Amino acid sequence: MKNWKRKILSDVCKLSSDRININKLSVKNYISTENLLQNKGGKVDASALPSAGQVVAFSPKMTLVSNIRPYFRKIYFSDSYGGCSNDVLAFIAKEGVSEKWLYYLLSQDAFFDYVMSGAKGTKMPRGDKTQIMNFPLYLPPFPEQVKMAHILDAIDEKISASNKINQNLEAQAQAIFKSWFVDFEPFKNGKFIDSELGKIPEGWRVEKLGQILNIRYGKNLPQTKLKISGYPVYGANGQIGFYSEYMFKSPQVLVSCRGAASGKVNISTKNSFITNNSLILDYTTSKTLSFEYLKY
User: Fold this and answer.
1) Among positive and negative, which fits the CA dihedral 55, 60, 63, 65?
2) Nearby residues of 200 by Cβ (< 8 Å), 6 or more positions away
3) What pTM was estimated for this model as a whole?
4) Taking a C-beta distance cutoff of 8 angstroms, is the pair 9, 94 a contact?
């Protein structure tokens, strides 16, 4: 590392100031904080476009970072031309800096924690651009940047492949559950009885969820108390950070109960903290319901 040079972020990149008209964009190439995915998950198509006006233009190989609620760690390496809202920062690598190395530099938890340290606002913290561009770093020679980015790319590809396998297995599990417990395929040749939910296999019964387990809110946790390590914290859209305490030793089934995410089902990990943005379906209080059955 003796050839690495100490720099700040403004030495290695700049922010895009180009503008593009909304009428030249589609839901495929418009990016806002809403369609960037948290925890470095990339992006999905936008649900809608602004009605009119201009937004920040971006091009391939730029790094886009949400500047609202930096603790969500929303970042995307662009592969097309498009436009992004003013709450998304579009970083352009300077000469002698690998675009993909810059992306991985900004993907560090250390960068997002640095942005949070200078963010303004409590409910919707927003990063300070001047402070962001002063982020301290070490700049390797260009060939080393390329090599580092190549290695990290290979790791990301393996993670992506594993995620696709997990999603496929989850879909198979859902299909099997539906076959057994919704369509009653294994019981087609048996006896059925009438219930308020329609015909069900003989020996089954209909219960209300609240009668067989406890349903309660999580606990309030100000976002300013979120930490970079510790026990996982779950909010309305899944994990949002870490905290020094946990509420449950075992995983729990959660149902979001705030805002646009209302009704979304999440599964917490063991030793986790649940915020009051979710309802907790506490299977440990049930004598008849397993975690696996409740989950599916």
Assistant:
1) positive
2) 184, 192, 193, 206
3) 0.71
4) no
